[in-house]
């Protein structure tokens, strides 16, 4: 995550950029906000869909932040910039001519999150020239990675690859990579420049909304 923030800072010198986690890692978002001087803050979720964290956890932290007026940006996905980054990561993994792709995501019980993953799959398919792209999930949703690979096989795909739809390495990314063996698996999006551009785009959208409201 810190590498991504470095790219964001390089693309927008002078913008104060800080990292805050909801759980598991530090610093926690609440602590990051508490360390900032009072004022306007834009929160850009490094999440790819409208799941529970985006709709409940982050707004709850924002409401509890004292001395700050927090503007919540939209989640990163779906967006064509994600398809650009995913395609580049697939090529870097050696999957330059797959005939089918599984978009490997964490998974959520929220149907809006699944709809966002499906939209990203369509964007990636278009980016790859119409190659079938099906979402597959590490948990909480179906199909899993093996099930998505089976569906591609039923479509006649013999050279599938797996696109890792994660910002950074972690439990879910590792789980998806293991489930995808022996097929090629791309690295998480990490510090890809297109992902950094998308973070700034979401920031600009939220900042503009805040200015319009006065």
TrEMBL record:
It holds the Pfam family CbiX. One of its GO terms (molecular function) is metal ion binding. Gene3D superfamilies: 3.40.50.1400. The keyword NADP does not apply. Keywords: Lyase, Metal-binding. This is Sirohydrochlorin chelatase.
């Amino acid at each position: 995550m810190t590498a991504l923030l470095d790219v964001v800072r390089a693309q927008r010198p002078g913008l104060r950029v800080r990292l805050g986690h909801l759980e598991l890692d530090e610093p926690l978002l609440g602590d990051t906000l508490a360390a900032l001087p009072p004022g306007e803050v834009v929160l850009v979720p490094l999440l790819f869909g409208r799941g529970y964290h985006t709709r409940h956890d982050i707004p709850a932290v924002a409401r509890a932040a004292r001395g700050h007026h927090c503007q919540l940006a939209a989640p990163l996905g779906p967006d064509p910039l994600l398809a650009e980054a995913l395609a580049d990561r697939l090529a870097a993994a050696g999957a330059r001519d797959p005939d089918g792709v599984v978009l490997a995501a964490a998974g959520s019980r929220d149907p809006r999150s699944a709809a966002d993953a499906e939209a990203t799959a369509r964007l990636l398919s278009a980016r790859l020239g119409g190659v079938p792209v099906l979402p597959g999930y590490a948990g909480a949703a179906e199909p899993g990675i093996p099930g998505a690979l089976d569906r591609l096989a039923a479509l006649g795909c013999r050279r599938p690859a797996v696109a890792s739809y994660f910002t950074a390495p972690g439990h879910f990314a590792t789980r998806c990579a293991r489930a995808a063996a022996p097929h090629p698996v791309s690295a998480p999006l990490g510090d890809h420049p297109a992902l950094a551009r998308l973070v700034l785009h979401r920031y600009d959208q939220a900042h503009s909304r805040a200015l319009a409201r006065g």
